[in-house]
Amino acid sequence: MTKIYKTADEIDFKTEDAAPMPVPNRVLMIKPTYFDVTYVINPHMENQIGRVDKKQAYAEWQLLVDGFRKIGFDINILEGQKGLPDMVFSANQSLPYCNENGDRRVIMSIMHTKERREEVPHIEKWFRRNGYEIHHLDKNKVTDFEGMGDGIWHFKRQILWGGYGHRTSLNAYTEISKIFDVPVLALELVDERYYHLDTCFCSLDEESVLIYPGAFSDTGLNMIYKMYKHVIEAGSYEAEKLFAVNAVCPDGKNVLIQRGSSKVNKKLHDHGFIVHEFDTNEFIKSGGSVFCMKQMIW
Ligand code: ARG
User: Fold this and answer.
1) Domain count, the chain
2) Which of 34, 65, 196, 228 reaches 20 to 30 Å from 9, CA-CA?
């Protein structure tokens, strides 16, 4: 089902029509040994250079690892690399895929900024060792693509929600749709504070999503509302300052989220989700929280 959808009117299928995708059972995380803010590539990093408390960051990261373990996920940990302070955000260097036959593939990212490009080969090595079929985007056709920062799977379905405009260009999705043979619902990101789709769109279960509406165009919002029965909206304070939407719901039930987003947490609870709060304050200085700090894998 290869196709890029850019408006709600174009969407000619229902979620149930799309091929199933198994729920990931493992998490890939990178040790924050070299995590720091040493450059500014998003608005959240401004004035944060040199302000990361490394010990605190390590403690926050470790509690998140434990959190994934507690809800039943296997954790694979990879050492960070000196000089690559953002490598800890393991959602960004790749987009893994698995189909109902258990075929595992991965598309490696073309990072938008030169500061992060060297991270990709390290992650690629891990996927190669772990039996994934590796795909690269054609650099003549695709300018940039930042993995699961911008490409987010619809829960349990081979449908990709694709954010573009800041770190990923729309042209990436034509290639990705062909490689994985999946439909892509493309969402333009219109506010640079929400520079990745995962800062404003959190897939919860097949029928539910958590979003920050201000990050999307009306066209994009209409697509989201067409595909989801329950759209939970976060307010600007919790979305921007607490990264509430950069949460993860890896099993359709448990939501791991930055601590303190009481309004969002109440809404999640009212929809039947179990909320687990974590401190990711050191990572928010770099513009990332729970969702970016892990990669879901099979
Ligand atoms: N400093 C990193 C960057 O700007 C943070 C990435 C956070 N990841 C995410 N998926 N939002 O690239």
Assistant:
1) 1
2) 196
